[in-house]
Each structure stands twice: as C-alpha cells, then as structure tokens.
Design goal:
Largest sheet: 2 strands, antiparallel
Radius of gyration: 17 Å
Shape: elongated
Distance between the termini: 27 Å
Oligomer: single chain
Order of helices and strands: HHHEEHH
Number of helices: 5
Length: 124
C-alpha cells in the first residue's frame, strides 16, 4: 500500500479496512487479519496496526475476541458508513467547498461530473 504523507498511517490503514468492508470483501462477523498479518501486508510496525484496530474498535466496527482475534461487528457496514461520513464531512468537505468556490464550479457541473463518475465506475 502506498501511504500519503499528509495523513497518519494508522488512519490510512483504517480507511483501507473500511473500504474492504464497503466493497464486500470482508463480511460482518468475519475474522479479519491479525495485527501481525496486517502489519506484514501493509509493511508497517504492528503497533501502528494495533492503533488502527483500537480506533475501529472504539467506533464499533471491530470486536476483539480475546485469544481468538479481531472480528467485524454485526452492523459493521452501518458503523463504517457513519464513521466515514463523519470523517468526510468534517475533514474533506470544507476543502472541496473552498475549491468549488475558488474555481467557480457550480453544483450543476458538479452533479454532471458526479453522475459520469458513478456510471463509469460503479454501474455494471
């Protein structure tokens, strides 16, 4: 995984985990890679992964079954969407609005480009 220097690595790993869930690659109640396995896969220190897992556990996305490992929560998709939505609104939307204003991009153009993006990337 290529990490962005503008955001903490543990937060980027959290985004990766959330994306796996939203893409349906990891399912509710399913065991996820151990801290050690994820650290090897991401080429990071296990403490970084542990920080990620603790964050996601605090957001009710993961559950730690002592001695067994980390599992996705029953309602993990809803929890991920809430977490990601809040992060997006708080962290990314202000910058998006600033750029829309500065570049004089109106909502009609934005809507058109959004619809094109969705049809090219998510429609089968």
């Amino acid at each position: 995984m290529e990490f962005n220097n503008n955001k903490a690595i543990y937060l980027q790993i959290a985004e990766y985990v959330c994306e796996q869930i939203l893409l349906g690659k990891w399912k509710a109640d399913e065991k996820i890679p151990s801290v050690r396995e994820m650290a090897i896969e991401m080429e990071v220190n296990p403490n970084t992964v542990m920080r990620t897992y603790e964050l996601l556990q605090g957001k009710n996305i993961l559950n730690n079954k002592r001695g067994i490992g980390f599992f996705l929560a029953d309602d993990t998709i809803d929890q991920v969407k809430q977490y990601r939505k809040t992060s997006f609104i708080d962290d990314e939307l202000p910058n998006l609005f600033r750029n829309l204003y500065l570049l004089e991009i109106d909502f009609d153009e934005l809507k058109s480009r959004y619809q094109t993006f969705v049809s090219q990337n998510f429609n089968t």
